[in-house]
Every structure is written in C-alpha cells, then in structure tokens.
Description:
Chain A is mainly α. Chain A has helices at residues 10-13, 20-30, 34-50, 57-82, 90-105, 120-144, 149-168, 198-216, 218-228, 230-235, 240-266, 277-287, 299-318, 323-345, and strands spanning 173-174, 188-191, 194-197, 268-269. In chain A, strand 2 and strand 3 (194-197) form a beta hairpin. In chain A, helix 4 packs across helix 13 and helix 5 packs parallel to helix 7. The longest helix of chain B has 16 residues, at 185-200. Chains A and B meet through helix 1, helix 2, helix 9 and helix 10 of A and helix 2 and helix 7 of B.
Amino acid sequence: MTSTTATPDLSEEFAEKSGIIPKIQSTLHKYPYLSPLFVLIVAMIVFTMLNERFILATNLSLMTQQTVIVGTLAIAQTLIILTAGIDLSIGAIMVFGQMMMANLVVTSEVSNVAGYGWPAALAIVAGVLIAVVAGGVNGFLIVRFELPPFIVTLGTLSIFTALSLIFFKARTIQGPEMPDAMTWMGTTFKIGPFTVMTGVLVMLAMYGIFAYILRNTAWGTHIYAVGDDPDAAELSGINTGRVLFSVYCVAGLIIGIAAWITIGRVGSASPNVAPNINLDSITAVVIGGTSLFGGRGTMIGTLLGALIVVVFQNGLALAGYDQAPRVLAVGVLVIAAVALDQWIRKVQG
Amino acid sequence: MSTMPAILSGRGLVKRFGKVVGLNGADIDLFPGEVLAVIGDNGAGKSTLIKCFSGAHAPDTGTMEVAGQDVLFRSTHEARLAGIETVFQTLAVSPALDIAENLYLGREILKEGFLGTAFRMLDRKRMRAEAGQHLQDLGIGTIQNISQAVETLSGGQRQAVAVARAAAFGSKVIILDEPTAALGVRESARVLQLIHDLRERGMPVILISHNMPQVFEVADRIHVQRLGKRAAVITPSTHNMNDAVAIMTGALTVEEADQALGPVRTPVVS
C-alpha cells in the first residue's frame, strides 16, 4: 500500500498571523488583564486631571481600604466563575461567618448579647469553618444533584441570610465589645505617606497565593479545564465533580477570611453590612476580564477590576458627581468588559 | 501474523441504551502493528463498540481482552491506565488551555518531592519540554509556541494535538473516532499522515471512519459493523469499496463476504 496523499507542508499553517487588529486581539487573548490595566491607568490620569486631590496619598490609601471587602470576596468569586459557575450567596455566607465569630467571642459582661465568651482565635476559626461548610453545601448541591449554580446560590442566599437572623438576631456587635484580635484586620500603619490597613496586605497576599495556585498546580489547571469544557475534562480523566466541590469549599474559606477582614474594616459585625456585595464581586470579576462562560480569566485581572470600580466611584465623587452617575459609569464598564470578552473569544490563529 | 495473539479483542459484546440496542453480540480483534478500520452505517454500533474499549461505556455482557488480560473499563481513566488512548470525535481538548497543558490534561507532571505530592505543583518546565518532544516525534514540532492556547489553532492543528496526546501516552492501542470528519482535504491528509507514522512506529490503531477512500488508503484490515455485530472483516487488497459498502448495507451477505475473504495477510508497509 502506498500513500497517494501528498504530505502537506506542516510548518506554514503554524505561522503567526499578521495585521494590527488581530495582533491586539490575540495579545488581549493571551493576557486578558491588559485591558483592565489600561482602563485603570487611564481612569487614574483622568480623575487626577479633574481633581488633583484624587492622587494624594491619603486618597490612594482610602481607596485600597474601600477595595478590601469586595476585593477579597472577588477572589472566591473568580475561582467559581472560572468553573463557569456563579455564587450569589457570597455576601450571605460572609455575614453568617462574621456574625458567628462576633457572637462566639462576646460575653454578656461587655455586651447585651448573651454571647459565648470564646477566645478570639477559636471564634475566628469557627467562623471561617462555618463559611467553608456553607461553601461545601453549595458545592454538594451543584455536584450531587447537578443543579445550576445560579439557582443553588440564589436559594442559599436566602437560606444563609435567614440563618444569620435566626441564630444571631439583627443585633450589631460593635468593635469595642470584642477583643482586639477581632478587629486586627482593620488596624493601620504608615509606610511613607501611605496609611496601610492590615486587611489590605492580607488581601494582596491571598491574590498572590491564588494566582500562583491557579497557574502552577494541577488543581488550578483542572479549574480552567472544567470551566472551559466539562465533557472534555471528564474524558481527559479529570474528576470534574471533585474539582467543582473543592472550588466551592475553597471559596468558602476565602469568604470566611473576608468575614474577619470585614469586621476590622467596618469596626463592627452587622447583618446589614455591604448589601450589594454579591453583585459587586461579580462586577469586579467581569471588569477584570474573567469570562462568565468559564475557563478564562486571571486573579490579577480581578484585583484590577475591583480597583477600577472603587477608582470610578471615588474619582467621580471627587469630580463632583453624585451617586447616580457613578452607578451609571459602573454599569457601562460591566457591559463594555463583557463586549470586549466576546470579541477576544473570537480569536483564531 | 496469524499466529500472533490479538492485542485487543472483544467477544459477544452487548450494550443497550434503554430500548435501543447499540451492540448485539459484537466481536472485534486487533492484531499487533496493524491499522484496523471500523466502518458501518449510522447506528451500526461503531462508536459504541470502540467506546467500550476507551472506557466511555461499559458493555452489558461480553468479554474484552487487552494484551491477554481480561478487562472491563468503568472510566476513560481506567482505559488509559491499560495503555489505550482514544481521540474522541469531540477531541476532548480544553480550548483555553495551552498545548502543553492539553497534552498532559488529567495526568500532569508534578514537581518531585513534597511540593508535588502535597500541593500537586506542576513541573511546567518538564511539561513544556516533553510536549515539544512529542510534537517533534510526530513531525508537527513546527508549532511555534507550545504555550499557545488550543483555541487559537485551526481544526487540523487541534486534531494534531489530540492525536499527539494519544500517541504520547498510548502504550498498547490508539483509537481514533472519525478523526477527519470535521476537517478539510489538506487537514485530513495530515491526520492520515499521522496514522501512517503511528503504524510505522509499530503502534496498533483502530480507525473509525465514514470516508471509504481514506479507509482503503490507510487500513490493513477493515472491520465491517452491521446491526450491532461484526458482519465481516475484509482487506483493501481482497475487496474493493463496492464490496465494503455492499456488506455494510446488507446487499452482500456475510457468507459471501467470508468466502471472498482470504487468509489474514501481513500488513504491507507503504
């Protein structure tokens, strides 16, 4: 038997495509955080021109502190959205975790809440663990019963909110009622002209850790593969159910740490803290270039996305705009980010 | 050749999906070093048959042997451990991941020591280097960038990545399910070339295809599947395409086909 087929020249098909637009497209495709980075830099320049107080060290420090809650929660949201899921219960889990911490730690001597008088370290660990369990419940329902993440977390949003009220009432526990360790995340110190909050450093460290994990571990690769094409991942020998479940548990861990940070940042544990935090975390992830369809995105992008939202809010306020135009600007950003993602996804080499 | 035991065989395989009978007592034999094409009409059970060996389905009854061992695969992972690699019709590649990551998807090379075992940390350097070597071995080492996302590749290139993955890890058998169905003429030619190369390296290949000219070009023997069973096994040198189609559609009986079938031939290397 002889081959009658001419062997095609293999090399030329792999040649790079030229032209400026396709080049931009494929560069953005490869480095999806470039577009939010560009937006952030341009926004900062523009807002400084509108009001020079924007670029002052005090304002920059303030903006990092305004980012810390949504920024930390957005790490968890990024992991979940990378698997093509979504978590609407992030805020509810966070509130449940912080109310648990605060109620475990207080005593009736300093507070009109009965409390349990646990040591702060134990109370914090217990609050983080309950967040892991809550994330695990989401993951279990999604994997075991093959329910859409949107529906599961819409349900658990109500359930965890209700549980917080049932167990811990609607009582806000103030910082002074608690040991100092509870508000340690909110302590600040000076580095040059900047006021740095401990929680911000913890958030940045978590971004670094999870960016590294996503890039350099088998677990990270499997998260992308599951979000990209679950059937292909399964046929490639990946246990997709286990990957999904572990992602929701790890998201719970991050949310638990965010609960501790929130007590420090706000200076109290309140069931009404950050009511829009679920959608805000999704906004940060999307503006950061992570695809809602899963399988594409970076941690650094999400951090930039969270900063962009704060920079727009803060910069527009300093430029004299009130709440409505600021909300409008964030809405435009979200749609622009998704439109850009759709365009980038069309890349073909 | 005829005295060599089959590297892969199945006897009396039955697989039902509810009321639909996918396999109705099918047999199959694959001998070392050959390319066996599996042809048949839609619904004849070609894909079901090979999916038993890729681990995507488990047969209801029947026996399967690989290299003399009785096997029953409950997952693609188990089939891979037995040395059988499959290129599925859907390719099963992850578009957003790069070429190296796709080659090692589900069996990443981990760093040695604690970092690898406890944190499953990737040895990215080794993955890149070895992925590059595998592509080189298949004559597609001209891919510019091993860290290129698979979705930036053309259909033929993706197919090449999927075939490279199978070739890199398949130690006993490689199964290709309709590898050229979605490809153009040029890209199909490349995949056929890859099949030639695999056979020259002594790797037994099962090829499922609808494309008769391709089947007759690359196959040593042709397994004709009809109504969930093996209707006949023919060779490109004893039968022509019309015979194959006639057996496939039932126009020619199994007996007539068997009479026409000569002794099993040693494959001729092109």
